Amino acid sequence: MSLLGRAMLPQAFFLPTGSGKRFCLFHPAPGDFVRGCVLYLHPFAEELNCTRRVAAQQARALALAGYCVLQIDLLGCGDSAGHFADATWEAWLQDARLARHWLREHASGPLWLWGMRAGALLATALAKDLSEPCHLLLWQPVVSGQQQQQQFLRLHTASQWLGADRASGQTPSQMLNNGQPADIAGYTLSPALARGLAAARLEPPPCPSGQLVWLELSVQAEPALSPASEKQLAVWRDAGWAVSAQALTGPLFWQTVGTDDAPALVQATLDALAKTPAQAAPP
Amino acid sequence: MSYHEHPLVVTGPKVQDMLGIVSLPAPGAPQKTTGVVIVVGGAQYRVGSHRQFVQLARFLAAAGYPVLRFDFPGMGDSPGDPVPFEDSAPHIATAIDALRGQGTGVGKVVLWGLCDGASASLLYMQARHDPRVAGMVLLNPWVRSDAGLARAQVKHYYRQRLMEPGFWRKLAAGGVGWQALRGLGKNLRAMRQKPPETLTFQELMAHGWKAVEGKIMLILSERDLTAQEFVEHAKTHPAWRGLLSRPGVTQHAVHGADHTFSSSSAQREAEAVVLAWLNDLDR
Question: What is the pTM of this model?
């Protein structure tokens, strides 16, 4: 493992696993006082690329604010080993477990699981089988894997309109249902991953409940949480989670390749986490 | 596993630290002395759309070639402000230094660039005349200009808009039509723009092309507007006269490919063409 110690760049390393290496970035908090540690779980397919910059900005800002942040590229994603076609939901969950374990060995304080879009689904799934209490930071969470998958399959339809893909006999969902992989927007989605993703739901893990920070972006000048989000949040409150939810004005940067910044989101994240005192962690 | 990867801080006296990944042949496997530096463009980070750069780097490393991919400042995981592709020569120089300084035994390098990464590679040669660069692989080079874009918009968009009855109804009702007309006026002015006194980046690219003493491989996607604009520009602009047919220049068109070679067959074809060309160069 080679750790890179230059200022401002995170420490980059490959974490060995039973099925190849996973690329990781560790942003240690400078100084001795650590407010907590944060595990970042990235979004699905090309959304990982689109969100990389803003995630890096947030990770640096969190580190400066006293948090130790670990980012992991899941199997077949980013710089990690394997092809996207090899990935399964269970393998990703296993990667998330390993990353949490590594983070716990290298940082102390309350644990935050930070998930973006489908990463929020993975974060809640991880929280469900943890033996330690945790808090959740969810950015633009996808409330069901089924929804994420439908959006992804729509990219195939769009590319057919643009004439990029020749129409084959079967639609991607038919192929997946028949146990065949489907090529969509440069990614090969396996039936196993499709099954696992489709079954994933954003459900509050059983006790002990912690803090839930839920942040959404909208291009509206006066953004508001969607009725679907409000409905979700009620479930979390009922399950005993302390919910802090906010809609902010900002670009939908997970949808576009560009250099969009989301300073309101970065600041709101810092503010929300700062409200949770480092010592008030569940025992 | 037929490749080996490690993170690398790409650092130099005149540039901010950048995060890179070096891909090498598996330990013990024979290694070439020609290295490849992937010059990332188009607001991508080192992984590339649908992991195009990751897969290319691993493919070439497995065939013996050391490859470096890196994030320009402000992109992906590198901190700092984004660098326009026209100003990226110091960063490319530093990346070449970094790959050669790795004890990898790399002597000459090949620059591989897609879109404005291809443009940046040519501008690098124009600025530096670097004798360490043995060749270039340029995919769908970016030559867009205000005048060229204005011409394309007038041709494809406004002509069509002016034919639509709805446009004239909106105009009569004081709707958005006026805005469109103002846009048309702006585009017509842009089309008539006199060429600036200083050289345009497209002219500097032509000088860079001439400055390559090694070989150039030009790969064009069949279904890509950027590629078509480049060919049109190179055919009609005086600065480009005769450059595509110079000795040492090879052209390859990938049938059915889009801008980022998103279908797996297009990607495999582009990879195979690059490897065959590299093997010829390295001989």
Answer: 0.89
